[in-house]
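Quick note —
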Amino acid sequence: MMNMKNILNFLCFFVSVFIFSQTKSVKKLPVKNPGKAAVKKAPAETKPNPDLVVIKQDLPVLIPKKKDGKFGYVNQNGKFIIQPEYHIAVFFYEDCNLLNSPNEKVRKFGTKDYATVEKDMISYRVDKTGKRVYQFKDADLGKCKFEEYKQQLYQAYIMNGFYGLIEKAKFVNPADYREFQIYPQYQYLFIMEGDDVSDPMIVVSHNDRFGVIDVHNKVVIPFEYSNIKRNFSWKLGKMFEVTKDGKNYYYVDADNKTY
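Predicted structure written out below.
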């Protein structure tokens, strides 16, 4: 009996030691402090400039304007946003030489978000706040990739010293007045460059004054100007560069509103 009792005591001791050793060997894994999850901040939204008002959707938000012999930019309300200090200022439009520049870093300045100006014989690109963001360098200028030229549907036709308008593909017999789009009646006629060759703006002269008509001979700009420049102002800005005294030029829109 004594031996059996000793054996039981030994077994109980062994089991208790085994269990104790197991509980000591089990270690609690450290719990990582999750902390605060990193939150990416959304980029701050660019607030629209309240001065860049849009009254007419088809017009530029900034329009070149000359004051005291220098050019700046006014908004559609006529307020100067970029003060006049330049010898040359053109519409905000793409510059294909910069868009195709071998210098990738300056290509962005060729987009329509910038305009070309010139001061003291140095040309710059400015943004819509007037900040000079780029100075032109010959090494940065790439070759322009010209789009396919849109052939004009109409052309001027002179008969008996007067200008009219014909549709080239249909015109055959000048003796038949019905073949003329506009029968010759003007002292001068010039078709402006634009995006819609089927409905171009046409600068004409009548009684020594200039105006603008459409292909249906409807007057768009009245005959009250001594000259209207035949340039890219209609294509780039849907505007006309006009003068009444032959010296001071300014822009008007298709409603003849002055800027």
